[in-house]
Design brief:
single chain, two-stranded antiparallel ribbon, alpha+beta, elongated, 259 residues, 4-stranded antiparallel beta sheet, Muramoyl-pentapeptide Carboxypeptidase, domain 2
């Protein structure tokens, strides 16, 4: 039977497996793995069944209510689930209604979604219906140009020698985990994460449009050395060292994503 989906981009889960009591003396790493595995099952049960009480989760998962509460506390702290009063239909009974726990938007996003496939399907439809590769290029350029409006402000506010670093910080704010570092006769802009890598693997026009906008923003020709979409560990762009006059000019060309 296939394993349940895993949460991603957070420390909540990994290594989904069977839940069992941890004997004394078990290595700390195994204890942590078991905790994450159980926490994943709690979150997955809420995804499958909707807002759930502690008692309902304990019954479905074969856990004690104390154990369920412990995992829910961790999930709440990670903004994966949130507590709310359970909706009561009909006459209310005495006492406060039990709390139900529901996934937050962050919690839903943490589960694998079909957004990559949807985006790739949409680009393929554009390609087939509205002008082939040129239509995809036009879309990619329009998308990155809109995204880069904020980057431009950050770069223009920085001194010429600090513009690559300013771009890296702006990219990091958008989830690209970017850094800038010195290199022979220039600098390297490294993006350690790419939110659209799976789509860019099928449509490298996204990488090429990004490289073009980097050139325009930094005012110089740049060269893309590696991309995550192409199978490399990091997206790496080389920015040559240029004079202040050249730095302030708009570049007319840009490096292309390697084939």
């Amino acid at each position: 039977m296939p394993a349940p989906e895993e949460l991603r981009n957070n420390g909540v889960v990994k290594n989904v497996g069977e839940v069992r009591e941890t004997p004394t003396g078990t290595p700390q790493e195994e204890i942590a793995t078991g905790e994450r595995s159980t926490r994943n099952r709690v979150a997955r049960s809420i995804l499958d069944h909707g807002p759930s009480t502690v008692a309902e989760l304990a019954g479905r998962l074969g856990l004690t209510q104390a154990a369920v509460r412990r995992h829910l506390d961790a999930l709440v702290a990670d903004d994966i689930v949130a507590a709310r009063e359970q909706r009561v239909y009909g006459a209310r009974t005495r006492g406060r209604p039990a709390k139900a726990f529901a996934l937050t938007d962050c919690g839903r996003d943490a589960f694998d979604q079909s957004y990559d496939k949807l985006a790739a399907d949409a680009l393929r439809w554009i390609q087939e219906r509205f002008g082939g590769d040129e239509a995809v290029v036009a879309f990619a350029r329009a998308r990155i140009a809109e995204q880069a409006a904020g980057y431009r402000q950050a770069i223009e506010a920085a001194a010429p020698e600090e513009r690559t670093e300013a771009l890296a910080k702006a990219l990091s704010a958008d989830g690209y985990a970017a850094t800038a570092r010195s290199a022979p006769v220039g600098e390297q802009l490294c993006q350690h994460h790419c939110p659209v890598a799976h789509v860019a693997e099928k449509f490298p026009q996204l990488c090429e449009a990004e490289t073009e906008i980097f050139s325009q923003l930094l005012g110089t020709h740049v060269q893309r050395l590696a991309t995550i979409a192409h199978g490399d560990g990091v997206c790496t762009t080389f920015i040559p060292r240029v004079s202040t006059a050249t730095q302030n000019a708009s570049a007319s060309t840009a490096g292309r994503n390697p084939a």
